[in-house]
Amino acid sequence: MTRRARRPARPALLTTALAATALLASACGGAQDEAAAVDASDWDAVLAEAQGQSVDWYMYGGDQRLNTFVDGEVADRLADLGVTLNQVKITDTAEAVNKVLGEQQAGRTSGGSVDAIWVNGENFATGVQADLWACGWTADLPNAEHVDLDDPAVATDFGVPVEGCEAAWQQASSALVYDSAVLDEADVESVESLLAWTAREPGRFTHPAPPDFTGSMAVRTFLYDTLGAETVTAAAEGGGLDDDVYEEARDETFDRLLDASDGFWRGGETYPVSQEEVEKLYADGEISAFLTYGPGAVGSLVEDGVFPESTRETVLSVGNISNVSFVGVPANAEDRAGAMVLADVLQDPEVQLGLYEATGIFPVIDLDTVEPALAERFAAVDAGPSVLSPEELTADALPELDSATLARIEDDWRARVLRGEG
Amino acid sequence: MSPRLRIALLLAPALLVVGVFVVGGVLQAVLQSLGFAPVVGESQWSLDAYRRVLADPAVHASLLLTARVSLISTAAAAVLGTALALLVRRLGGRRRLAVLFHGTLAVPHLVGALAIGLLLAPSGLLSRAAYRLGLVDSVQDVPALTQDAFGWGIIAEYTWKETFFVAVVALAALGRRVSDLEDVASTLGASRWQRLREVTLPVLAPPVAAASVLVLAFVTASYEVPRLLGRPYPTTLSVEAFQRYRDIDLTSRPEAMALAVLVALLTTLAALAYLRLVGGLARRSL
Amino acid sequence: MKHSPWRGAAVAVVAVVTVLPMLPVVLWAVAGAWRYPALLPPELSTRGLRLLLGDGVLAALGTSVLVSTSVALLACLVGLPAGRALGLHRFRGRRLVQFLLLAPIIVPPLAVTLGLQVFFIRYGLADTVAGVVLVQLVPTVPYAASLLAAAHADLDTDHEQAARVLGAGPVATLRHVSLPLLRPALVTAFLLTFLISWSEYVLTLLVGGGRVTTLPLLLFSAIESSDRTAAAALGLLVVAPPVLLVLALTRVAGRDVAWMGVSRA
């Protein structure tokens, strides 16, 4: 083999050093220009600007029916207005907020990649703190006339004033889903009776580990049961919970949960990562009861044979936890006008009806403001024998606490219950 | 053109990629773990991220899990892969089985995680078969093999995939030359066991060791398998790093970088230690 | 051991254990409702396979093919000259270069990408196919360079010398002499890097930001969803091309095929 003798060459170090420093050196670029604001009060101008825009809507993508609805009816309506909808499915809303924060940190103040986010609670609050959102536009949406903007559920989001920084589009209500072939009605009356049942028939109940959205609600349900509805309501209306009250209730709740968790799935030794995981466990018959934020979607799962026919829903005596979720538009978004048109389309009564029919997601609009014929169609939606009506579900609705308290509950639960720290 | 310049030019594109991305990336991870805020923002230099990470019980648990999963998977793959290669050589039908092994190698780990989940989960195929055979009465009786405390599901996935990697590497090494050596040994009166210990295994050791280093480095750092087959707590270091990077609180990012640096350090150390152990391998590895 | 009756059985056992984990994937892909504890799906359904014809999946398939082809081409383009330098020449710093080229195999690309992410955003590469292709060069270039270095080391350079003596220019020599000799290695390098890119998940997720949707991204969210049939059907779609490619290649190439082993996700 002929291998040519070569004079020693030593390009390696030099090239590498140069290349490695190139990135660092070029890192000192200046910030880009701030994006010009979109004035939503001139709606025709918004529509004109939105023409030809492509809206990247970051949304939780785990609900197939919702995905189909958004890809179909919502996208079609936007297409009629000259706006292309691009649904970006994520598993956790925090990803989208994190992405905008990352862009902000990297100096990208215009041309941002996230045009709209399905958001509420802690993620919204984080964005408010970081001055992330475009604000003051939601009252100008033509369809906002159907939304009661003064309703505390719409005007504040987990204790944070909304102030036109996000537009409401759907309502979530908690419920307990259970297999009536395994549990009696007496078992699902209250948190107390549910925990007593898990002690008798161990391994058949669980909830996702917070920070999963539903998992967080499950832990709150137990905490609210300790606190009592009055304290929760007072705290939500006033300035949150006193530290002492919270800590006492937390310790009592977690002690109770740690006692009871022997009867949970896997002996409470671990918890599923997500609500989808929980629903798979229920479909497989591994568990026989779970808490949900989407009680309206259960009917179709029973119909498809995924859930057993004996599936039923109820509200535990502690009450149901309700919240509204929104569409937020980052201030640096590339296609803000299009994102506002999306928010408006979502509040359209016909779209809200279609959403309810297709996915079982409850409307956020005030049904008194829509035409009577349409209101009747809302009332006529039949979700099957497994599902409770919105009225039954929300009869004992509890408000959400502020998101700082929520974050604290989640952290404390992870430390005490999941990791078993003293 | 001078030869030196020629070689420099030939190497430039590859070194640019490795230099900018790998060296630059690691450097950036180190800097950002120390509080450097690139592009905009105030850099505040400190070791706080490392202090926080090293004091965090979640990280301790994660370290333990990562070490357990990667060491057991690597050891299992090395032993089973070598044994499989020897078995296949004895069995004959080597070509067809080798083709099968190659096919298995090409299965992406993401699909592997899906497959192992559908096989080993309490409602998975094995559990259904056990039920049919009357070994379990209900799904509650099935021992947890995925999302379990030990990490068996993760280990199973890596072992399944990487055993065939090691086997393929070992089979490639068991060429005609080894057979000749074995024949010589047996002419000299060596027993079957002596032949294996004195001739075959020494020939197999270097390539299997090199393959094991790759497996170890890969398993220690990979994300999707522990994410899909593991628990929310504890998680492996890569999952922990990724989650902190994605945390809504951007102040967790230095911790994410610190964890990433830790993973990089671990894989490098493991690789160096291993290579040293089997000595002289570095020359063969490229 | 000659042809004992156990031989066939043993081969069969090895073969079954090898492919057993893929069995539930195939079953779920064609299953209708399949509740525990039924051993086999009580009813078959084409729903999973029909899902693969949806717009989203076809678009992701297109993106995957585009990304992986670009990555493989670029990795070979970058790896070919480096392989030539390493395979044909002895020079000071050669060991260092080899070490650097090995680094991405040992140092996790995830750590590298976390550090670089902010620059990808700053320079408009985040969320783009170009950015994803660039970042995937990290895990692919080392393999392309190593493979092609080995091929060059085995290359008989007398042919090249002869061509040059007979008056062929460097380009003509490359085209008519070197490349044909290197063809098997180039094909292997191309396929191997294609496979690595095809399986890549976490780098695509980080740099693509959920907007560059390749098949592994779709598969990951399908595995996380409650729809096992969809996940299994997508799993089959993701697994089919690499397995078929490797099987085809095992017949064509011989020696270099051990490198396929390192095609990992």
Q: Please state roughly what percent of the residues of chain B sit in beta strands, choosing from under 5%, 5-15%, 15-25%, 25-35%, 35-45% or over 45%.
A: under 5%
Percent of residues in beta strands of chain C: under 5%
Task: Please give the share of residues in helix of chain C.
Answer: over 70%
The named CATH superfamily of chain B: MetI-like
What is the residue-averaged pLDDT of chain B? 87
Radius of gyration of chain B: 23 Å
Q: What is the general shape of chain C?
A: globular
Low-confidence parts of chain B: 281-286
CATH topology of chain B: MetI-like fold
Number of domains of chain C: 2
Round the mean pLDDT of chain C to the nearest integer and report it. 86
Task: Determine the most extensive contact between two protein chains.
Answer: B-C, 100 and 95 residues
CATH-derived topology of the largest domain in chain C: MetI-like fold
User: What distance lies between the first and last C-alpha atoms of chain C, to the nearest angstrom?
Assistant: 38 Å
Which architecture of the largest domain in chain C per CATH? Orthogonal Bundle
The CATH C-level name of chain B is Mainly Alpha
Termini separation of chain B comes to 28 Å
As an assembly, this protein is heterotrimer
According to CATH, the homologous superfamily of the largest domain in chain C is: MetI-like
Number of helices of chain C: 12
The profile of the biggest β sheet of chain B is: none
Pfam families (chain A): SBP_bac_8
InterPro entries (chain A): SBP (IPR006059), YnjB (IPR027020)
Keywords (chain A): Signal
Organism (chain A): Nocardioides cremeus
